[in-house]
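It is worth pausing here to work through a concrete case rather than discussing structure prediction in the abstract. The textbook approach is simple: state the sequence, then state the predicted structure, then interpret. We follow exactly that order.
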Amino acid sequence: MIRARHIALRHSVLLAAVLALGIVVAPGVSHARGKTLARSMQNLILFPFDLALSPYVGGKAVFLAWKDSDDTKAVKYGYAPFAPIWGISVQAGASIIRGVAGALELLPGLVLLPFDAEMDPLYDLPETQPALVDQEAGPVRFKFGIDYLAPSE
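Step two, the predicted structure:
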């Protein structure tokens, strides 16, 4: 009987401590903007579209650079077979890095949600580079088909 009271007292003290901690730690009025979380989700959701469009975007960027270059014809035609492979590979790799950055920003985005704080982007190229699709719908920005080979804006 004494043991049962001791266990009940221990559970009551533990419950009171957890409730007190919850009251102390819980935010009052939240002014969260959720920018980090939104950016993370956008990167996670849209990186497959970037990856799928890599052959088109990479090929287009390489072709335009090839056409506008002032190199000799020998250099231009020597470059032509290998440049698309390089351009498409860079586009695909940058798309995968976008997805990894989105995954890495997810937990900090959730942690920062109740606080008035944001985190700088781990990978800011999706925000600074031109894209095939760049539309804003309220707080969400749909940007994919990003040209990672273009100079930053």
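Step three, interpretation. The longest strand covers residues 131-137. Strands lie at 131-137, 140-146.
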